[in-house]
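BUG: 3D viewer hangs when loading the predicted structure for this chain

Environment: internal workstation, default settings.
Expected: structure renders.
Actual: progress bar stalls at 90%.

Input used:
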Amino acid sequence: MERKIPKHIAIIMDGNGRWAKAQGLPRTAGHKRGADTIRTIAIECNRIGVEVLTLYAFSTENWKRPQDEVDYLCKLPKLFFQRYIRELNEKNIRVCFIGELQRFPLETQKVIEDAVAITSKNTGLILNIAINYGSQREIILAAQAYAADVLKEGALLPLNEEIFASYLMTSAYPPVDLMIRTSGELRISNFLLWQIAYAELIFTPVAWPAFDEKALQECIDEYNHRDRRFGGLSK
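Structure tokens produced before the viewer hung:
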């Protein structure tokens, strides 16, 4: 049986703080190691032919965390891209993002926008960072955009699943085939609720800072054992 590689993998990168605590380190150390894991997994996904890797880096709910942790998370994109943007670019990886970036400090916004610009011509893996992103908020914004178009046209416009998806932040990407959550939690946490409608879900006990190429391949192996019927019957 031919091994299938998911076109679009989405990952809820969970467990940074718990990993750090288990190592006797501050939570920020877990976030730093987790950023290094982004580089590892992005390069591996690019190598095996994944088209899109969407990573849940900062949710709309993460602003509720302690201020010092939020401040560090706002600085993390600069630390990450200063260290890895050249390598990502050399490996033909294209950086994109979804979410409402404008709430972040201007310096953070510029770092992310620069990474997008530097890699914009690349044709390999799309490394799609979800930052200040929440799926319910995304769906509300999509509904508002559709309503604005209706008002502009002065008539009800056609609407089905495909058309509505074109209003989402992920409109340029294929649906999610495989959604992974690390660190053992069994929740979706407001991540790509529309896009994972028929995705295979895998919840691994491995914390994100310890998630490596082997852990990714194990998830893809499990994905290959799933019978994806999309509401139909097995062949």
